[in-house]
Design brief:
Order of helices and strands: HHHEEHEEEEH
Helix content: 10-25%
CATH topology: Thiol Ester Dehydrase, Chain A
Largest sheet: 6 strands, antiparallel
Number of strands: 6
CATH class: Alpha Beta
Distance between the termini: 63 Å
CATH superfamily: Hotdog Thioesterase
Shape: globular
Strand content: 25-35%
Structural class: alpha+beta
Radius of gyration: 19 Å
Strand order of the largest sheet: 1-2-4-5-6-3
């Protein structure tokens, strides 16, 4: 690359700084999902590096619902002056996954399967927050469906739907082998 030393990192200076924050330890898996999110709201659990970098935070939780908020910072804007759509997906995923997590007992893992966003209006950077409120509309044994609304400045800006995989009795400290998840009687009629 012309003008750049080969040893220089391609990352901006802010991303070359030491990572701040940490992941939740295995002791958090001993809590129900509702307890984990309440503990995060009360700052009894550490902020993850991603949450620390973005300013994302849980703001409200109840059984089957969760709200997350994040600053509508100019750092998220595209060259067109609007917040990047992927940023809205980031906040929607947090609220949707949090809503499912709030229904889970201890030592139960969950992970998003898909996320669909319908954008209603562009979001411009402002001193306000982008808020996402997720609500579980279906919770089966292994699949949950969540509806989520995103707003800022009192206006609805996007609607999201997410499917979430639930692994009962499975924490993330053990590897998942799909073959082990198929019931032994799956092929019989």
């Amino acid at each position: 690359m012309e003008g750049r030393d080969a040893t220089e990192s391609p990352l901006p200076i802010t991303l070359r700084e030491a990572v701040c924050g940490s992941r939740w330890g295995l002791e958090a898996m001993e809590m129900s999902g509702l307890e984990r999110i309440r503990s995060a709201i009360e700052r009894r659990l550490p902020e993850s590096p991603c949450m620390r970098l973005s300013g994302l935070r849980p703001s409200e939780v109840g059984l089957g619902m969760a709200s997350f908020a994040m600053p509508a910072s100019p750092w998220w804007q595209l060259g067109t002056g609007v917040i990047a759509p992927g940023t809205l997906a980031f906040v929607a995923d947090a609220a949707a996954s949090g809503a499912v997590l709030s229904t889970l007992p201890p030592a139960t893992a969950c992970s998003p399967l898909d996320l669909k966003l319908n954008f209603i209006r562009p979001v411009k950077p402002s001193p306000n927050e982008i808020t996402a409120r997720g609500r579980v509309v279906h919770r089966g044994r292994t699949i949950a469906i969540v509806y989520c609304e995103l707003s800022t400045e009192g206006k609805l800006v996007a609607i999201a739907n997410q499917s979430v995989l639930v692994l009962p009795g499975r924490s993330w400290d053990k590897p998942v082998h799909v073959a082990d998840e198929v019931p032994s009687d799956a092929g019989s009629t």
